[in-house]
Amino acid sequence: MSEELPETPETAEEEPIKQRKNGLYPGVSDELAENMKSGWADTELRDLEPIPQAAETAARRAALSARFPGERLVIPAGNLKTRSNDTEYAFRASVEYAYLTGNQTEDGVLVLEPTADGHRATIYLLPRSDRENGEFWLDGQGELWVGRRHSLTEAAKLYGVPASDVRELAGTLREATGPVRVVRGHDAGIEAALTDKVTAERDEELRVFLSEARLVKDDFEIGELQKAVDSTVRGFEDVVKVLDKAEATSERYIEGTFFLRARVEGNDVGYGTIAAAGPHACTLHWVRNDGPVRSGDLLLLDAGVETHTYYTADVTRTLPVSGTYSDIQRKVYDAVYEAQEAGIAAVKPGAKYRDFHDAAQRVLTEKLVEWGLVEGPVERVLELGLQRRWTLHGTGHMLGLDVHDCAAARTETYVDGTLEPGMVLTVEPGLYFQADDLTVPEEYRGIGVRIEDDILVTADGNRNLSAGLPRRSDEVEAWMAGLRG
């Protein structure tokens, strides 16, 4: 994070304005600089209401405060990252920062200062672009170039936290005394200011706590996840309607079609869309999406809309491009469906997290033994993990602000933990027969099937958030036929 002011007419006497190489204007006249300072309307927003999740973010900060009494806690949003030359990637605030503030702007930092009875929270942000020194029109991140930022007063109203100028924060942190923890990996400038005050072990404890805090979702989060899933359902419908155009082009038509829905109804896609046709479905994270889409093949579409508050869906359907499964495709698909049914049935409060994985893997293993693709008995295959040649991955993961949410949580609270109401996870068994796998009959080769749904643990069992998309093979065919007229 730079603390230097932009080179503007105010500093021109000491150093000439730094121009972009090959820019068309050689400089700024005194007259133009003076002209640009005035004649602008007051645009301060005075009737702002707090963001919808303000009560939830306050409760999350309170829980964080209670866990680390007497310590200064620093949670950065992160900085812009260069894509190429002078263009940047679209910014996405760190999950920890977004979870605790609801704010999504670059360079932001949440600081919890210890007090006698807890902590005092302050959100540090870049203020409005300065019109007096010309920053708003001369700086590459000025208001006339990238759009208006909220003033600090506006930000305080929106997020329910006092707001201060982030450009002063690094200096303040250098002078700080007492124990400090920071979420690492997002803001090198902030970390440098704290380099002699923090330890990797203590900082990791902070990151782990914030990851585990997200294991159980509050009502706001569950509502956002349902929004993400509902938009994702519509995105899948969009794709089915244009499969003929994808056949005429490539998998990229599918990717682009889903992306349109994500951008119209949400912030973005929650992860790189997997639009895998034919044997590409056997590549777990196929995101090149540059292959052909052929009638007679399967399309494995793994995609999720991310809401404006960063919560993402994660849904997979494996669809027959022609609209009808072949006999061998249906055989494999129905086996995966049966495995998913067993996995979903195992999701309930009090169950071990691993139960849904074990239930789904058992069904898939039984099918592989029944088909003669691996020598039984089933218990031996499971003990040795031999089914993994064709099942490959775990059967699910936590879902939320990250597609693989809560990843820093301790193993004993996540994979070895117990399911509780409010947890949201995916159930996504799959079978993948690689095109070059000589251990299976030729008719299986190149077939990849995954079915994935987003499951909320409820007080009395579970609720499939993505039930709006059919799963059973005959229902999928009828759904596709209806959409394609």
Fraction of residues in helix:
25-40%
Shape: globular
Strand content: 5-15%
Structural class label: alpha+beta
- Could you tell me the mean pLDDT? 95
Number of helical regions = 17
Please describe the biggest sheet, giving its number of strands, its sense, and whether it closes into a barrel.
5 strands, mixed
Unreliable stretches = 1-17
How far apart the termini lie comes to: 55 Å
The counted number of beta strands is: 17
Radius of gyration: 26 Å
Main sheet: which strands, in order across? 6-5-4-1-7
EC number: 3.4.11.9
Organism: Streptomyces daghestanicus
Cofactor: Mn(2+)
InterPro entries: Aminopep_P_N (IPR007865), Creatin/AminoP/Spt16_N (IPR029149), Creatinase/aminopeptidase-like (IPR036005), Pept_M24 (IPR000994), Peptidase_M24B_aminopep-P_CS (IPR001131), X-Pro_dipept-like (IPR052433)
